[in-house]
Amino acid sequence: MDDWFPSALKLTTRAIEVGGIAIIVLGLLGSSVAVLWQVLHGRSGSEAFNLYRSNVGRAILLGLEFLVAADIINTVAIEPTLQSLLILGGIVLIRTFLSFSLEVEIEGRWPWDRHKGDGDSVSRRTA
């Protein structure tokens, strides 16, 4: 490959990592401002707190997606060693666990239970 290509890939992964960190930080700041605004305008503390947790969880999930994307690019294109592949596998497992945990916190149910409690929606779709 050309000499500039590895440098461009490293710069790209760094930019994606910075983007992921920025999403998390800005999500935290934006959620904090939003919850203060809602409390000052009469929303109950528990409702505002639940919305805050939901928004923070979404920001973390989106930021983690960017960070994992940077790790994938780094592992596949820049440093394709067995050690970096194992590290990436560990990161993906941790991110998957965090995603499920945050999904439960945000939605109040497991992702595969999304349609439970909707009544008899399965039989209505087949009828």
Average pLDDT, rounded to a whole number, is: 82
Structural class: mainly alpha
What helical percentage do the residues reach?
over 70%
- Morphology: elongated
Distance between the termini: 58 Å
* Percent of residues in beta strands: under 5%
In this structure, how is the largest beta sheet organized? Answer: none
Poorly predicted residue ranges: 120-125
Number of helices: 4
| H/E series | HHHH
Count of β-strands: 0
Q: How big is the Rg?
A: 20 Å
Strands, helices and their partners?
Layout: H1 4-40, H2 45-78, H3 82-107, H4 121-126
Helix pairs in contact: 1-2, 2-3
Descriptive keywords:
127 residues; mainly alpha; 4 helices
Plain-language structure description:
With 127 residues, the chain is mostly helical. It is elongated and about 60 Å long. α1 runs antiparallel to α2 and α2 packs antiparallel against α3 (82-107). The model is unreliable at 120-125 (pLDDT under 50). The protein contains four helices and no strands. The longest helix has 37 residues, at 4-40.
Summarize the structure.
It is built from 4 helices and no strands. By secondary structure, it is mainly α. The longest helix is centred in the N-terminal third of the chain and has 37 residues, at 4-40.
